């Protein structure tokens, strides 16, 4: 069998088109566009790239887009003051604090200071609690897990009710929320992690495998049940001597070439889950704006 390749770029582009239409309708009805504020502390090069692309996409969607760039030595109180100002700003519907923060700042305290109604990353304790208790419609769901579900929907058009799913990874950012969403969609979910015994056999039992580990090509092709759907969240940069000395390439957490011989459908890396994350951030900002006037 050769798997269907799930085209994350195309699914993300169509999600963005929907957001643009929703933003135009929101602006027409409310006299202002949805507003997204991104807060960056310090000068981490990768974070600067992520923040810039979020701002660009927000403007493309027709949003009011604001970026607060704070010095690396910003104190916790100063950061909380910026968040307080954004919480109180009626033109801002979504606030994203780019992680990781410099080591002297506490992430939970920082995220905890966000107005949960503006928590477009879905990382506030209230957002996590609502997701865990099945109140998916009342909360903002973390962007990467939400993107995984939208990709699954393109394959499982009748839903995933009754299917078995194994999520490898239990981070607050990806593994845990994706498992909660799969369960909410009535899959039977197992969460695996670094202490799991016999991961190959567990994966081989699953109709859906979601890999969120952070280890290049860790999940082997022969672990995949024939016909299963594989969602590869991992982004790992490895050496690519075949491209020339010092060159690198991106791979996922799944051995894509071998797994695509057995899977029914699989996401590539790059071009699978990655493009969905930013699209879902835009969708969450629009949702937050719509809720603010509902
Ligand atoms: P974390 O490092 O926070 O979590 C990794 C998880 O994998 C942990 O739960 C860990 O288990 C588990 N794990 C580690 N080693 C093994 C193993 N040998 N067997 C089974 N499980 C193992 O990573 P994230 O969840 O933040 O990210 C995961 C991957 O997804 C990364 O490659 C990251 O770059 C990528 N990512 C991609 C995004 C996108 O937009 N596509 C967005 C976010 C992340 P334990 O809890 O026991 O330590």
Automatic annotation (TrEMBL):
Presence of the UniProt keyword Nucleotide-binding in the record: no
Gene Ontology MF term list: methenyltetrahydrofolate cyclohydrolase activity; methylenetetrahydrofolate dehydrogenase (NADP+) activity
Pathway: One-carbon metabolism; tetrahydrofolate interconversion
Domain Tetrahydrofolate dehydrogenase/cyclohydrolase catalytic: 6-121
Residues at which NADP(+) binds: 169-171, 235
Keyword field: Amino-acid biosynthesis, Histidine biosynthesis, Hydrolase, Methionine biosynthesis, Multifunctional enzyme, NADP, One-carbon metabolism, Oxidoreductase, Purine biosynthesis
Pfam families membership: THF_DHG_CYH, THF_DHG_CYH_C
Record-listed E.C. numbers: 1.5.1.5, 3.5.4.9
Subunit structure: Homodimer.
Family per record: Belongs to the tetrahydrofolate dehydrogenase/cyclohydrolase family.
Protein name as annotated: Bifunctional protein FolD
């Amino acid at each position: 069998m050769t798997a269907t390749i799930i085209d994350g770029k195309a699914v993300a582009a169509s999600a963005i088109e929907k957001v643009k239409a929703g933003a135009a309708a929101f602006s027409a009805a409310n006299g202002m566009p949805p507003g997204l504020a991104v807060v960056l502390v310090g000068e981490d090069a990768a974070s600067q790239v992520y923040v810039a692309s979020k701002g660009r996409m927000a403007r493309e969607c027709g949003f009011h887009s604001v970026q607060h760039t704070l010095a690396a030595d910003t104190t916790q109180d100063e950061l909380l003051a910026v968040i307080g100002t954004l919480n109180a700003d009626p033109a801002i519907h979504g606030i994203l604090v780019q992680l990781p923060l410099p080591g002297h700042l506490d992430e939970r305290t920082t995220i905890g200071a966000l107005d949960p109604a503006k928590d477009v990353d879905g990382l506030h304790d209230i957002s996590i609690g609502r997701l865990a208790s099945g109140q998916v419609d009342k909360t903002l769901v973390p962007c990467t897990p939400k993107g995984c579900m939208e990709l699954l929907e393109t394959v499982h058009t009748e839903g995933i009710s009754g299917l078995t799913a194994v999520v490898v990874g239990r981070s607050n950012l990806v593994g845990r929320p994706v498992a909660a969403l799969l369960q909410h969609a009535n899959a039977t979910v197992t969460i695996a992690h670094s202490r799991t015994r016999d991961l190959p056999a567990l994966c081989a039992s699953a109709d859906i495998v979601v890999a969120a580990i952070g280890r290049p090509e860790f999940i082997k092709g022969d672990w995949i049940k024939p016909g299963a759907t594989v969602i590869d969240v991992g982004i790992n940069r490895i050496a690519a001597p075949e491209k020339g000395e010092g060159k690198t390439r991106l791979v996922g957490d799944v051995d894509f070439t071998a797994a695509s011989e057995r899977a029914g459908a699989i996401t590539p890396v790059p071009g699978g889950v990655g493009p969905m994350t930013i699209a879902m951030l835009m969708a969450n900002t629009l949702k937050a704006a719509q809720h603010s006037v509902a």
